[in-house]
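Structure in, sequence out. Go:
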């Protein structure tokens, strides 16, 4: 239903958008163009549009992946960023990381009350000798850098979802399993009362006209997580990895499973060995499924999205529901359903 609605909505966007029903049809568009930007989930369509403005004018992929996901972080109707669901204590904590074409990286973990964690992650990379800043320290640094401290309050949607969750306070982390619409209990709703999916993360990878790769990943993390819980998204090699000689990858879904296999590092290393982006993602998914067994894997969603140095891309996930957005021209910004294992 959502896919259909999104399709109709996308028809009204500035950049031409096409939704293909073919699970791996590219609507006749070449897979292997430069520049190109990819991002996870349906919010990726709007994020790609912003990133494309930079890429189309010959800009750097690194700037594109920052500016692109800032759109999603700003959107109050989206679960990414300050509009997202809080932890068990009712506080929104944000994780993000960014990597450039030189292998530099920066990240923030459990950052509170800052609208653009991705930009703070960039500053950590550019202005400190460190890769990560966490919690209060990350916030202090952000404020020193001129980022305004936003009010400590939940978005109307998040407040509603949190109140619903508090009725049972049942702690059973689960994430992004969409085909069970209606069958979900209150612990981690995959669909919000406003009809939007609970995609609390956006990952973006891009190749610019010079053939340089960069990536970003930003999230409010798992809904109603334990205070202090950190997922894969801000971790180099888990939620995001870029090697400018080979390719870039991002992940989404149950972060704990991605962390245990160093998911995006694995995907990039498989591409180095000659795997196509799709097959590299498939093999990384396979490792997670093998580790958990089929029965348990049915309760888990993880998706990987990858791009190689030639501009070829692909994705794979454990089960149906994951989609990604690809933009490679002024008229092509498309949401594609990922292939899945189960
Ligand atoms: C996490 N991987 O915190 C993130 C969640 C996610 O769409 O991808 N949600 O584990």
């Amino acid at each position: 239903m959502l896919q259909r609605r999104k399709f109709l909505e996308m028809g009204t966007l500035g950049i031409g958008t096409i939704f293909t029903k073919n699970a791996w049809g590219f609507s006749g568009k070449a897979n292997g163009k430069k520049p190109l930007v990819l991002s996870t989930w349906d919010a990726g369509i709007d994020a790609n549009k912003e990133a494309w403005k930079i890429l189309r004018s010959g800009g750097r992929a690194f700037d594109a992946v920052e500016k692109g996901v800032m759109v999603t972080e700003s959107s109050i109707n989206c679960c990414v960023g300050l509009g997202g669901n809080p932890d068990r204590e009712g506080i929104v904590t944000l994780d993000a990381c960014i990597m450039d074409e030189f292998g530099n990286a920066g990240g923030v973990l459990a950052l509170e009350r800052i609208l653009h964690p991705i930009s703070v992650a960039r500053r950590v990379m550019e202005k400190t000798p460190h890769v990560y800043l966490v919690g209060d320290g990350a916030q202090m640094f952000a404020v020193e850098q001129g980022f305004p401290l936003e009010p400590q309050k939940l978005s109307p949607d998040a407040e509603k979802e949190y109140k619903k969750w508090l009725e049972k306070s049942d702690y059973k982390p689960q994430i992004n399993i969409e085909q069970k619409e209606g069958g979900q209990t209150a612990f981690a709703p995959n669909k919000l009362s406003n009809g939007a999916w609970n995609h609390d993360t956006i990952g973006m990878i891009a190749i610019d006209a010079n053939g340089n790769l960069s990536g970003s990943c930003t999230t409010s993390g798992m809904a109603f997580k334990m205070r202090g819980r950190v997922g894969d998204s801000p971790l180099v090699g888990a939620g995001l990895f870029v090697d400018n000689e080979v390719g870039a990858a991002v992940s989404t879904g149950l972060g704990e499973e991605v962390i245990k296999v160093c998911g995006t590092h694995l995907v990039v290393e498989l591409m180095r060995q000659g795997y196509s982006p799709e097959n590299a993602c498939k093999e990384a998914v396979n490792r997670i499924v093998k580790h958990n067994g089929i029965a348990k894997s049915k309760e888990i969603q993880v998706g990987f999205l990858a791009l190689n140095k030639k501009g070829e891309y692909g994705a794979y996930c454990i089960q149906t529901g994951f989609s990604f957005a690809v933009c490679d021209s002024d008229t092509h910004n498309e949401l594609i359903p990922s292939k899945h294992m189960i």
